Amino acid sequence: MDRDSVVVSGVGAVSPAGLGADALWRAIEDRRVLTGPVTRYDLSEYPTRRAAEVPAGAVAALDSLVPPHESLAARYLAAATLEALGDAGLPAHRRRGRLGLFVGTVMGTRPLLDRAIGRGPLGVPDRAWARPDELLAAVRQVVTVDGPAVLLAPGCSAGNEAIAAGAAAVASGEVDVAVCGGADELSLEVFAFFTSMRALAGDAIRPFDAGRRGTMPGEGGAVLVLERAARVAGRGRAPLARVLATASAADAHNLTQPHPDGAGLIATIQTCLDRARVEADDIDWVCAHGTGTPANDAVEARAVAKALGGRRPVLSSVKGQLGHAEGAAAALEAVIGVRALARDFVPGNVTLLEPDPECAGVDLVEPSGRRGPVRHVLSQAYGFGGAVCTVLLGKGTPDAR
């Protein structure tokens, strides 16, 4: 392995499965659908009362891990960061090397407004809802950040954009350690937004299904710790995965609709393959954006088929299990991608009933998932406005079986 290559040394997560990356992966392997009735808000006026909510017990358990903060997303991010640094064998403080923080989000701290809706004048202290950088405050309380701290908000591709920015910073030597991730929390604003678009599913998210009706919000936070391979080896540790390439594009086709030909996604996939010198047939799993909306899935499947060509690409989406966690979605999926490489398991399309004939160009993974060698994972994410970001991950040890 190239000693200068960028690798994943640790992961952490807070998700609808609870606290920790292990809990997240167990839910994926066990095919648990984590969308259900929301307890945090009154959704009686919305077309669905279901979403993927971090369990109340896990939220309460944050008190023993991270300091209080008005924003749940900030606390999710801080907890995931501490777990990821521990997984990497790195201390939160008094650490050799420069640490940078790269975080993606859609809502930032705006869900703080929810507590004031319908209750007269807004009473959110210090206008924290209007300061998205406040999302990073909880991390700064528990981790020494002596490098750049960057908040990215290109829509729902934000988690992958954070990974891309952190990988570039490590590769250039700007930082020695990059904490990269995404965080968002359930929000009435998001429910209102998806309702206005008629994009909410009533019972379940069914990516790539002929009868799919829409998506459901989710929430959480996920973090990857990135370092150079030589630095990880110097601590006597093995990398969890390698960041082989990242690529971004903006097709600028429509504010909310993907380009009908998937032009941006095709460009990012081809760029990742070129940069990593990986062949299309070497991709063992495409971790799809797969929101379950009528507009997205067929376009995405066709674009993947066109970009990869050759044999039918193996494709699935975990949003049927986790909901759509906006800025946290791609980061959670990257953590799952790292685990898929380590465990040689491709997650299934758990809620799939009847594959959409328009997705015939890809190999849709059956709900049970697949065991077998997983050496390369392509994880892609869309954002409103045409933003696309794709990350290509490889096995931590290239010759591992």
Give the beta-strand count.
16
* Number of distinct helices: 11
H-E string? EEHEEHHEHEHEHEHEHEHEHHEEEEE
Strand count, sense and barrel status of the largest sheet are: 12 strands, mixed
The radius of gyration over CA amounts to: 19 Å
Q: In one word, what is the shape?
A: globular
Structural class: alpha/beta
Helical fraction equals 25-40%
Low-confidence stretches: none
Q: What fraction of the residues are assigned to beta strands by DSSP?
A: 15-25%
User: Mean pLDDT, rounded to whole units?
Assistant: 93
Ends: how far apart? 15 Å
Characterization of the model:
It holds the Pfam family Ketoacyl-synt_C. Belongs to the thiolase-like superfamily. Beta-ketoacyl-ACP synthases family. It comes from Phytohabitans kaempferiae. InterPro entries: Beta-ketoacyl_synthase, Ketoacyl_synth_AS, Ketoacyl_synth_C, Ketoacyl_synth_N, PKS_Beta-ketoAc_synthase_dom, Thiolase-like. This is Beta-ketoacyl synthase N-terminal-like domain-containing protein. The chain has 401 residues and is of the alpha/beta class. The chain is built from 11 helices and 16 strands. The strands form 3 sheets. Strands 1, 2, 5, 6, 7, 8, 9, 10, 11, 13, 15 and 16 form a 12-stranded mixed sheet that branches. Helix 9 links the parallel strand 10 and strand 11. Helix 5 crosses helix 11 and helix 8 runs parallel beside helix 9. The two termini are 15 Å apart. The relative contact order is 0.19.
